[in-house]
Amino acid sequence: MIRSTLCSLRDFSTLEPLLQMALVSFVLGLVFAGIELWTQSAPDYDLEGASVETFSARVLEVGPGRILLEEAEGGEVLALTIARGISQLNADPARFKGQTLTVSHLRHYLLSCSREGEALCRARCTSASSCRDSRREYESSLSMLYGAWAVTLASLGAYAWGRRGRRPLRVEGE
Fold this sequence. Notes:
Blueprint: H1 2-7, H2 17-40, E1 52-63, E2 66-71, E3 77-81, E4 87-89, E5 100-106, E6 109-115, E7 118-123, H3 128-139, H4 142-164
Helix pairs in contact: 2-4
C-alpha cells in the first residue's frame, strides 16, 4: 500500500528498487517515530502513587485480559486486568477458576499470583513507576523504528555498493 502510494508520486517508479526500498523504510521509520512519541506521552495507566497490595482470593471468573476475584477475608469482589508488560501468565488461566490464590496487584492490574507456592503468574515490574515504564515499553514501537531505519541504511548501503561496481567499462584501444 505504501509502495503503491509512493509509486503515484512523480519519478518514484523510475528509482532503482533499492532506493525505493530505502525511501519506503524511511517513511515507515517516520511513522514509527510518531507512534513512539505518542506512546511516550501516553497517560500513566492510572498507576501514579499506587502501591502493591497482596491478599488471598478465590477466582470467580477468568476472561480475556481480566480476572474476577473474591477476597477470602472480606468477601469483596475485585476485577483485575491482566496486562502484557506488567504480568506474565505461567499457566493456562482456565486452571485458575475456583482456586484460592495469593494475589498481588497494583491498582487494577494483576502483578503476580500463586497457589501453595506455585507461581501461576509473575510480575514483570515491582513498583508503579517501573510498571508504567514496562507497559509503555511493551506498547512502544521503538524496535520497529530502529528496524525500519536499519533497512533504510542497509538499502542505501547496498545501492551505493552496487553503484560502485557499475562503472562504465573502458575498452582498450578507443
